[in-house]
Amino acid sequence: PQIRDAEPQSEETFGPHVNPIKTSRTHQELHKELLLAHKKGKGLCSKPELQQVLERRRKEQTRKAEGAQARTPLEEELLKRQKKNTEQEGERVREEAQLMEFVRVRQNLKKIQAFHKTTNS
Predict the structure, then answer these.
(1) Beta-carbon neighbour count of residue 37 at 10 Å?
(2) What is the 3 state secondary structure string of the chain?
(3) Percent of all residues in the chain with a pLDDT value above 70, rounded to a whole number
(4) Stated pTM of the model
(5) What segments bear the compositional bias annotation Basic and acidic residues (predicted)?
(6) Residue 48 forms part of a structural domain
(7) Number of domains into which the chain is organized
(8) What average pLDDT does range 51-75 have in this prediction?
(9) Residue-number span of the structural domain to which 100 is assigned
(10) Is there a domain that residue 88 lies in?
(11) Is 89 helix (H, G, I), strand (E, B) or coil?
């Protein structure tokens, strides 16, 4: 056997080294997703979902409180009248229901009286 001089082998003879992890489809998709998240400004260490929900609720409550404070006297008066009208409408509906119940009971009594008159006669 002949011993040859060890030639340094370049990448050209073997080709570029292929990393099987980087060529996998799932790795490529994950890398793409991370790049998109980075472009959007979302970090990997974002807040937990519960904390995000709590912050969102606090913001909504402060907006509602500010909205209630920013009402003019005219708006306040209109809201009072609207509330009063809805209460009156609800009261009217309840009274009509009671009246209808009264009419039904009265008709039943008339039927019972008529039945007793016919049976007694």
Answers:
(1) 13
(2) CCCCCCCCCCHHHHCCCCCHHHHCHHHHHHHHHHHHHHHHCCCCCCCCHHHHHHHHHHHHHHHHHHHHHCCCHHHHHHHHHHHHHHHHHHHHHHHHHHHHHHHHHHHHHHHHHHHHHHHHC
(3) 82
(4) 0.34
(5) 56-66, 73-93
(6) no
(7) 1
(8) 87
(9) 80-121
(10) yes
(11) helix
